Task: inverse folding
């Protein structure tokens, strides 16, 4: 009986393997192998550069080919996500900011993962529902790890299969032939390279230029490629073979808030807060449009004025934004009169918050004039601009109930993040710090901080090479000399970056000036 059960189980496993051996799955396997090989070629021991957008384009090509029967053919948020993905991946070619380089390394794959779920209808929740994060986590862990053994079963089924479609048999034989030939070709090339110096020379130069494969690193690359192919196949297969959704959602796919806050109580709270804010806003108008120096208390400098109130104003702005969105989401609409009063009071609160935001922006500008520009200060300005547009969207929601606040926040967030990536903060900081130093003889400049900026700042830093201040000129020359040595060391085409290329050309022109100074 046990032998019979074993036979039945074996028969069932064979049937499963036969069902798995289909043209679509073999195409996914080939696409995954191609993707893994290209990943190794572009990224193994390479600095990120043009390789990143190239890989994203290849990934889209493989995805469109392997999932062509499952991808929706209409314009939606999922398809529009291609724009931020491509734009953020291009930053590795255009700029050299290490901060954005770090964050984009994770943000781009996250956006691609969410996009693939949306365009193949494998999401349980809508893109503007916070619970889409559950879909993302499910895709990263459950979908990928849950089918990790499928490619091995597929290969096993291909090998065992003797009958069936001629097309499938041919594809299977091609896959097997490729898997067998790759290690064999590598061994043969290695032996021929040892046997003939000319052949060895050409092999080494070709491999260095295109894929820079060191045979000593082959095992590491093989492991990385193997794992990459398995993970890619598992994920693509889960998208293609769509499982039944196990979570029931409402028609809009969003969370429904119960409006339980009493409007009279909320109106009372808003009136009390707005009275304070109106008085404060009146004072802020005096500072914003009047002469700051004549209105500051005795003994208080620009910098102290800016430093004292900035963070408090930003904190109040965030509190007010949270308050308004909560009131919109949780306050009952008992009648039109209370609803209108709430709209007016919410609008007044938003208006006062905008003035606070302008005041905080003004204070930070004063602080920059006194102490210079840094990443934190520039990004703080950007954050305040983002909050300003968020407040505008919230104001629209106050008066137009059907307006989707979550959708607008997500879209504004994507636009803001892409904009700050393309703003080129390093060039802006270097340019303004140098202009501030050169136009005001009493100001100092932090040479050490300039040295921490990315290569985007080099076109402006070279202006200080001939600065009459010997300490400044020496510090800049030392930093640029180190940069030149670093930029001259990387020659991989995969790491090509316009920012680094431009900086290298500029430093090559200044080469004699730097060398002469070092000889002294």
Result:
């Amino acid at each position: 009986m046990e032998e019979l059960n074993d036979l039945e189980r074996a028969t069932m496993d064979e049937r499963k393997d036969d069902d798995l051996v289909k043209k679509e799955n073999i195409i996914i396997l080939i696409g995954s192998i191609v993707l893994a090989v290209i990943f190794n070629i572009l990224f193994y021991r390479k600095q990120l550069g043009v390789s990143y957008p190239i890989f994203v384009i290849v990934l889209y090509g493989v995805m469109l080919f392997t999932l062509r029967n499952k991808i929706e053919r209409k314009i939606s948020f999922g398809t529009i996500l291609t724009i931020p993905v491509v734009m953020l991946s291009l930053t590795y070619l255009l700029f050299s900011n290490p901060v954005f380089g770090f964050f984009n390394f994770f943000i781009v794959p996250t956006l691609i993962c969410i996009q693939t779920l949306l365009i193949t209808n494998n999401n349980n929740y809508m893109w503007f529902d916070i619970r889409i994060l559950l879909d993302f986590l499910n895709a990263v862990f459950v979908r990928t790890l849950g089918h990790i053994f499928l490619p091995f079963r597929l290969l096993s089924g291909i090998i065992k299969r003797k009958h069936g479609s001629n097309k499938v048999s041919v594809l299977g034989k091609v896959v097997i032939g490729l898997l067998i030939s790759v290690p064999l070709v590598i061994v043969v090339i290695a032996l021929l390279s040892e046997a003939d110096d000319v052949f060895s020379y050409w092999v080494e130069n070709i491999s260095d230029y295109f894929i820079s494969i060191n045979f000593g690193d082959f095992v590491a690359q093989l492991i990385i490629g193997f794992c990459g192919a398995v993970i890619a196949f598992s994920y693509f297969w889960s998208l293609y073979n769509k499982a039944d959704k196990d979570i029931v959602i409402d028609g809009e796919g969003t969370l429904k808030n119960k409006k339980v806050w009493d409007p009279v109580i909320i109106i009372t709270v808003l009136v009390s807060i707005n009275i304070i804010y109106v008085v404060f806003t009146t004072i802020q108008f005096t500072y914003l449009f009047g002469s700051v120096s004549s209105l500051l208390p005795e003994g208080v400098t620009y910098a102290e004025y800016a430093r004292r109130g900035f963070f408090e104003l930003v904190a109040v702005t965030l509190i007010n934004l949270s308050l308004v969105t909560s009131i919109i989401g949780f306050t009952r609409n008992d009648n039109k009169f209370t609803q209108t009063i709430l709209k007016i009071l919410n609008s007044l609160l938003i208006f006062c918050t905008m003035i606070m935001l302008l005041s905080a922006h003004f204070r930070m500008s004063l602080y920059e004039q006194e102490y210079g520009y840094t990443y934190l200060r520039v990004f703080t300005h950007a954050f305040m601009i983002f909050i300003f547009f968020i407040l505008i969207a919230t104001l629209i929601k106050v008066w137009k109930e059907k307006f989707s606040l979550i959708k607008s926040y997500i879209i504004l967030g994507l636009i803001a993040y892409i904009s700050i990536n393309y703003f080129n903060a390093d060039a802006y900081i270097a340019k303004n710090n140098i202009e501030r130093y050169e136009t005001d003889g009493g100001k100092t400049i932090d040479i050490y901080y300039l040295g921490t900026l990315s290569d985007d700042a080099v076109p402006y830093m070279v202006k200080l090479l001939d600065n009459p201040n010997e300490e400044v000129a020496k510090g800049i020359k030392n930093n640029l000399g180190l940069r030149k040595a670093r930029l001259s060391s990387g020659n991989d085409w995969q790491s090509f970056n316009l920012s680094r290329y431009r900086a290298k050309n500029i430093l090559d022109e200044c080469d004699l000036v730097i060398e002469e100074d070092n000889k002294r």
About this structure: The chain has 23 helices and no strands.
